[in-house]
Amino acid sequence: MTEPNDSSAENFDVIVIGGGPGGSTAASFVAMQGHSVLLLDRDTFPRHQIGESLLPATVHGICAMLGMTEELANAGFPRKRGGTFRWGKSQKPWTFTFAKDTNAPGGYAYQVERERFDKMLLDNSRRKGVDVREAHMVEDILFENGRASGVRFTDPDGNRKVAKARFVIDAGGNRAQKYNMYIGERIYSKFFQNVALYGYFEGGKRLPAPNQGNIITCAFKDGWFWYVPLSDTLTGVGAVVSRDAAKLMREGHEEAYASYIEACPLIKEQLEGAKRIEEGSYAGLRLRKDYSYCHTKFWAPGLVMVGDSACFIDPVFSSGVHLATYSALLAARSINTVLKGMAPEEKCFEEFERRYRREYGNFYQFLIAFYDMHEDTESYFWSARKVLGTEEQANEAFVRLVAGVSAEDEPVFNSSEYFKVRVGLGDWFQEHMSKTAEDAVMPDRTAEFDKAKFDPGKFMQGFTSEIQQLQMQAMFKEERPQDKPMVSEGLIPSRDGFHWEAGVVKSEPRAAVRL
Q1: At 25, which CATH number?
Q2: Structure-model confidence comparison of residues 246 and 511, the more confident one
Q3: Mutual orientation of helices 456-476 and 425-433 as an angle, nearest 10°?
């Protein structure tokens, strides 16, 4: 083993830690602007990863901007036209679609085998000029005078080395590097503290066309299941339960998994005649901790966190790859802008954090309402997840992070009111956004909202606005409509989508904080 020294360090514009979707996407978008990029990953690809159900923004926005549309279309991944749920007041499944015309751009996504999908993204980074090194373990992020300046890593032969860069992107997932003194701490949600136990099957049933590629999400007394069709015969099936219910797993994962399937009639029916895979990379059961969290800050001078390194939210709406690749684009825009001397670093990364935190917060507030809509009074899991009774109301540090409370709004923010005004959003979504089977039971009435405090229609518009912007960017490029800044004197995406530029808004009186 050799010891590193700064005199032998390689130099790059950017170093990326992690070769998953967030890391490879950020690396590609920076390299596409002519900057030198080193990407280091501890694993050798292909490797297993969960989070197989994509959203249209990733497929028609990010992947299109990466030049991967044709490659994805030819990969043979099942088309996902929406989601099918056994959730809420309806005892029968209901479905929502991404668009009325499911063949139109944005009308579908894909269910992907992450082993293949992640390698496709990483190989694309190589083609874009990124120096990709697999089986390289990053040990430390180096700092000089309070600024990230590089990394110390170990190569496959055990040699310790140093690489320097103007920026470091941490896309290492939930095992992100430790640097609290520079970038703040990780705050955990008390609402979403779950674990997932999952495996893979051959021969599972499919929904009738055209929904055969849909993810099935099914609530049961101990939590909920995902059922993801990964090919005509391969299916990923996972049970998400509370950390308390996970105690059953101490008696054995197999026994617990079988009991969860037995308790969920829809999943049991879908798996009739199917066989668990016992060989290869899909063999066995896997356990993953799904505790939602958010860092108090997503960047520091010379350093930016993307994907799960910055924050993680419950996976019921398949947000993982979207948040990873979306934050990667935001980070790349910021770095590209600074490296070209177009705007100050602080202003660029404030825009990155503002937009990323808003997107995370949108998913959080939608998901708490979605959990709240399911009714099972005899279930501890669901009774503990009613919005008005959750102990999350007292978790002020986390709620303020996801609500995006500014220093000006701090004195008037009320975390209890934040939850109260969102009760009924899940029912509203089911009634207004779903394409429901004729015999499914819909909510008997839409919840009444004080729209001065929370307007569900405007929320859903805001929830989907950035997703639509990504797709417009990829489809129309410089011909797309002009974007508007989030705040006065904020930044907007450049016409090419890879930088920030100044935005212009009319001066308006400051509105009261929306709870």
Answers
A1: 3.50.50.60
A2: 246
A3: 50
Mean pLDDT of 354-364: 89
In a domain, residue 283? The reply is yes
Domain annotation covers residue 264: yes
Q: Are residues 282 and 166 in the same domain?
A: no
> Do 125 and 206 belong to one domain?
no
More confident residue, 289 or 145: 145
State how far the Cα of 455 lies from the Cα of 171, in Å rounded to an integer: 35
Percent pLDDT > 90 in the chain is 55
Q: Which two tokens stand for residue 66?
A: 């990466």
> What mean pLDDT is predicted for residues 351-373?
86
* Residues 45 and 68 reside in one and the same domain: yes
The pTM assigned to this predicted structure is 0.87
Residue 18 lies in a domain: yes
262 and 164 share one domain: no
Give Cβ neighbours of residue 183 (< 8 Å, ≥ 6 apart): 295, 297, 298, 299, 300, 303, 305
Residue 191 to residues 365, 366, 392, Cα–Cα distance (Å): 11, 13, 6
CB 166 within 8 A of CB 302: yes
Q: Give the helix ranges, DSSP H, for 317-436.
A: 320-339, 345-373, 380-383, 396-403, 415-420, 425-433
Closest CA to 357 of 393, 392, 321, 313: 313
Please say whether the beta carbons of 150 and 165 come within 8 A: yes
Residues 40-55: tens digit of each pLDDT: 999 999 999 999 999 9
Residue 52 lies in domain: 10-78+112-190+292-340
Q: How far apart are the first and last CA of the chain?
A: 56
Burial 153-188 (b: 16+ CB within 10 A, else e): bbeeeeeebbbbbbbbbbbbbeebbebeebbbebbe
User: Which residue, of 262, 289, 316, is where some domain finishes?
Assistant: 289
